[in-house]
Amino acid sequence: MATRPREHDEVPDGSVTRSHVGVREQLGEVLGEVAAPIVAAITRARRARMFHPEGLTFAARAEAIPSETFGELGSRLDGRVLARCSPALSRRGRETLDVLGIALRFRRGQGTVLDELAEPGDQDLLFATILSPFTMPLSLLTTDASDYLKNEYPAVSPFEVGRYRVKLRLRPIRAMHPILDSRDHRLRAAVAGGRASWRLDARQTLTRSWQPIARISFERLLDLDQDALRFDPFRAGAGFVPVGVVQTMRRAVYAAGQRARAS
Predict the structure, then answer these.
(1) How does pLDDT run across 125-156, given as a tens digit for each residue?
(2) 3-state secondary structure 201-263
(3) CA dist 82 to 33, 77, 85, 104, 225, Å?
C-alpha cells in the first residue's frame, strides 16, 4: 500500500521546490552548509529541535482576501491549514526573553485530514517575531513572549509567487482577552472562543505598502506527534517559492536538524 511522503522527501508533483539559484542563493547555500553541523550537534544534545522544540498544533482555515495589487493571490492558499505555535528557545514555558513562531501548512480545498504527514501540493510558510536571524538577540527584547496574539510575525525573507516577488507577515486580527494564566492556556482559550484569527499580508519587495491577501482562523486544538511533524520552508505546492540568502540557508540547516532528530 502506498504511503504519503514524509516531510523531508521529494514528492512526485514537485511540492518541495528548488528556487532559482542566483548569487544570494549561492551564498545562502554556503552559509547553510557551514551552520548545518552546528545545528545537528545542538539538536542531538537537546534531543529536540534546536529552535521551537515544543509547540501547540491547531486545525485552521484560510480564506482569500482580494487585493488591489495582488488580485486573487490569496486564493492559492484557500482551504485547510495546520498551524503550530511555539517559543523558539524555552522548553519550560518561560514567557520572557524568547521569540515566538507560527508555522503554517496550507492544503487546498477540503483536502484530507491534516496530521503529521505532508501531501503533494501542500505549502509550508514559516513566521517568527524576528526581522532577520541576524537581529534575533534584539528580538528577544521586542517580542511579547507572554501572548501569541500580541505580536507581528514576519516571514523573514522573500518569496517568488507568479510574477511577484513578495514579503509576507502575519498579524493578529483580534487582541487576546486578558486571562491570568499561561501563554498556552490563553491561546487555547482564544481558539475555543473563536478569537484566534490572523491576517496574512503581502508587499512587493522594495515597496512599503502591505495588503491583506488571506484570513486564517484557528478552529480547534490538534493532538499530533510533534517529533514526526516536520515543516519544510521549501515545500511550495501553492507556488510561494522561497528565495534569498536566509531562505536558502534553511535548506541545509533544516535537513541537518531533521536527520539529527531521526538518529
Answers:
(1) 999 999 877 777 898 899 999 999 999 999 98
(2) EEEECCCCCCEEEEEEEEEEEECCCCCCCCCCCCEECCCCEECCHHHHHHHHHHHHHHHHHHC
(3) 29, 12, 10, 6, 13
Q: Percentage of the chain with pLDDT > 70? A: 70
Return all residues near 11 (Cβ < 8 A) that are at least 6 apart.
5, 118, 119, 120
φ and ψ at 145, to 5 degrees? -75, 5
The strand ranges marked E within the chain are 56-64, 79-87, 100-108, 123-128, 153-154, 159-161, 164-172, 197-204, 211-222, 241-242
Asked whether residue 233 carries a pLDDT value surpassing 90, the answer given is no
The CA-based dihedral angle spanning residues 230, 235, 238, 242, taken in that order and rounded to the nearest 10 degrees: 120
Closest CA to 227 of 106, 81, 46, 60: 46
Cell numbers describing residue 20? 532559482
**How many Å apart are CA 222 and CA 253, to the nearest integer?**
27
Region 232-238: mean pLDDT is: 92
Domains along the sequence of the chain with CATH: 23-262 (2.40.180.10)
- Rounded to 10 degrees, what is the CA torsion of 14, 2, 233, 62? 90
